Amino acid sequence: xxxxxxxxxxxxxxxxxxxxxxxxxxxxxxxxxxxxxxxxxxxxxxxxxxxxxxxxxxxxxxxxxxxxxxxxxxxxxxxxxxxxxxxxxxxxxxxxxxxxxxxxxxxxxxxxxxxxxxxxxxxxxxxxxxxxxxxxxxxxxxxxxxxxxxxxxxxxxxxxxxxxxxxxxxxxxxxxxxxxxxxxxxxxxxxxxxxxxxxxxxxxxxxxxxxxxxxxxxxxxxxxxxxxxxxxxxxxxxxxxxxxxxxxxxxxxxxxxxxxxxxxxxxxxxxxxxxxxxxxxxxxxxxxxxxxxxxxxxxxxxxxxxxxxxxx
Length: 312
Fold this sequence. Notes:
The chain is an all-alpha fold. The protein is built from eleven helices and no strands.
């Protein structure tokens, strides 16, 4: 019973959901960010949207689960996150609605102007989502939401990691289509984006070691995770980068979430004994179902639909 009430176990569960969201949603958000670069014709844009949907629905389940765990099991963390980050959380929510509205409504009207408007919403919402996550993670690590060099470089790093993840996703998912050159463009972009992300990570690490910049960070854990990100990005930047990017981009984008989960000093209070037992008895069977469902959906929609669908 004491195990189920452990704050460390609960915090680890929250970290799992947040990292799972970054890895999975990083693919569809990043692909949305890169749409103007990867898709120049109407058919290419339709295939990119078809590649994102319905994958984005499953990835958002992880974010909903993270919010549920934080609200129900970690009220102290929820209070701190909301009190510290409420402006950027509002922006994140607006970006989420904008991006998803573009995806849901794109195919509802058969008009080039309407589809162009929805494509703009997808791209704009995707960039705002990535940037909002970068600012939010910087605020958690710094202990406050402030316009500072650390916030700027941290946000730039997270945005570059989202873009890299999207390029890796597009390089695999757009293969085999009539407009397959989009996959080639995405594959080539992984090397460039990995170099940009690598430089951003190194700059962020250099800025973070300044006095008082990120006081909430446990240096040892952050250092180890930064080395992992640098190694993954360096591997992606090489000649074999496009072949490795599917895995290395996932490792790299997981690092910011892991740094917050493992190194940030988030105050966590134990759950009452029976409450912990009840909550975990519901969660333990659910987590494998989420994992298997994500794998099943990815395999089922591994290639974008050749014909128009509900989303595109």
